[in-house]
Amino acid sequence: MRVVGFLFGLGPILFGVGFLAPVIAAAITASGLDAPAGLSAVQFGLLTGIILGVIARQRRTWLW
Amino acid sequence: MVTETNTPGLRAREKAIAEQFIGGFPWIMVIWPLVNTSLWLALWPLVMTGALPLWAGFLIATVNMTAAYLPSHEAQHHIIVPEGSRWHWFNEFIGWYALIPMFAPLTVLRVTHFEHHRHTNDPLLDPDIPMAANSAWAAIGRALVKGQPRHDRYGMTLQRLGTSGAKTASLHAMLAKAVQYSMLAALAWSGHALEALLLWWLPLKIGLVYINFYLSWAPHRPMTGRGRYKDTRAFSSFFGNIGSSGMQYHIIHHLYPTIPLNRHPAAFRALRPILEERGCDLGGL
User: Fold this and answer.
1) What is the pLDDT of residues B91-100, one digit of tens each?
2) DSSP notation for B225-275
């Protein structure tokens, strides 16, 4: 139960890696843009997804 | 002012009228989820094969999400087939099937919704109280806040209850969340990220704002009134009764939860003189 609780506590980070990252990568590819700093779309998606996920977990919100 | 205790005759009259609207087989609540959920499931092959543009799929999926909850609400109250019937399994099937787009377990919604009925507008015990707000814009803001990590009251309510039903519901909630987000991740990482976003995740978020606004906030606003005739109100919606998911007459549901949704307007008209005598807020209807 503690493991389950721990994993659910990581929810926003898992969401950032599991869903947000590929969505960002797909949006960049679909819009024909290049990811900044020479990163690939997937690398940029992962970086952004993890950072936003960590912030959302700490602040308990994605919005402010 | 009449009260519940000084007018036993009034209560008996109210009950006699209300009972005329209870019972029968609500066909609309069976056909509705069968069409709605099946249509949402069909969007996936239609969009993935290019037969339907993604933007059109997004619009349809958003409507699907806003319509997914209500049939399960009827099932939560055992309105489709009553408990004790040999066909009660069909009530449960409709309740679960309706919720597939939302990926929410019937057990969780039933336990927490019954708590909402028991403790409507109680600041500590009503699971819907995070929607309390003084204006429509504030209520939309509340719905967005409720969707943030660890901000809803349903998990807390299940933990507080601690019954076997609540424990089962907690397990179902955890499983549903794990499976839903695993499926979203699998879709997204296998080249269907935009489909997962626009057919499921984003329509669900929009649908939840609509559902929380019209089902949790509008009939109870500002969510401070307490008592049988004060905790719920009738109201006139800009989008009409259908556009507000039948919530204009939600006061009928809180007084008699087993009256089917499609009979609420008629029951309201029949009970109106008694509700006026009780001093209920009828919202100008």
Assistant:
1) 999 999 999 9
2) --STTTS------TTHHHHTTTGGGHHHHHH-TTS-GGGHHHHHHHHHHHH
Residue A2 has pLDDT above 90, yes or no: no
Tokens of B72: 């399960």
* Long-range contacts, stretch A40-45, CB < 8 angstroms, 24+ apart: A45/A20, A45/A21
Task: Give the pair of three-digit tokens for residue B262.
Answer: 């499609």
d(CA B110, CA B115) in angstroms, rounded, equals 9
ipTM of the complex: 0.88
Closest-CA residue in chain A for B189? A22
Nearest residue on chain A to B184, judged by CA atoms? Answer: A19
Give the pLDDT band (50/70/90) at residue B199: very high
Residue labelled with tokens 């950032």 = A16
The CA distance from B147 to B130, in Å, is 11
Maximal C-alpha separation, chain A: 45
CB–CB of B245/B215 below 8 Å? Answer: yes
Residue B103 at interface with chain A, using a CB cutoff of 8 Å: no
Of the candidates B80, B76, B132, the one whose C-alpha atom is nearest the C-alpha of residue B104 is: B76
DSSP-assigned letter for residue B52: S
Residue A23, chain B, CB below 8 Å: the answer is yes
- The 10s digit of each residue's pLDDT in B221-272 is 999 999 999 999 999 998 999 999 999 999 999 999 999 999 999 999 999 9
Chains A and B form CB pairs within 8 A to the count of: 55
